[in-house]
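call fold(seq) -> tokens
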Amino acid sequence: MYDNSTQLGNYIKYAQEEENAWHVDIVAHNLGGLAARHYIHTFMQTYPDGRPQVSHLLLLGTPNLGSQCFDIYNATLNLAGTPVEAVRQMTQGHAIEFNRTVVNQKGVKFSALAGSEDSILCGSVLPNDDVVSVASAIWRIKDNKTVNESHTDLLSPKNLNEFVKPRLAIGPKGNHNPAAPDLIDM
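ret:
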């Protein structure tokens, strides 16, 4: 995640130069959402116009509170002697520390899409997308939506058209200076 947030910064710089854009939006799925949150907290700039480099972060199936499935995968990999850092970073234990330290949203608006197929999630009955629970995907984000979709189907054209596109498509007369992050106080 931490290496990916650095790479995300390099890509944002490239995209800004290629498109002559000061401000960008990020659409992130799964661990990519955590990497984007880390980038915003750690590396993102605020520009002379007072607006953040990233205007809007859309999180699709991001395990903001970790995932029970990754707890199981992580334990299994550790027992086999083949730990995988990306898996560890999506565990519920890691999420506690991550959410305690990655708190600065620097004025970026957050939105979250969660999937809910009402299946058993790694031994527990929770509304989930087969990988991430609805509660973890929504976290504290006020602008959220839950759809009856699996984790990978959150990237379907239907969800991109109905959830992502309306949040990114701002016309010339639209609000290009979004409000501060919509988070639920904890």
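The chain has a mean pLDDT of 90.
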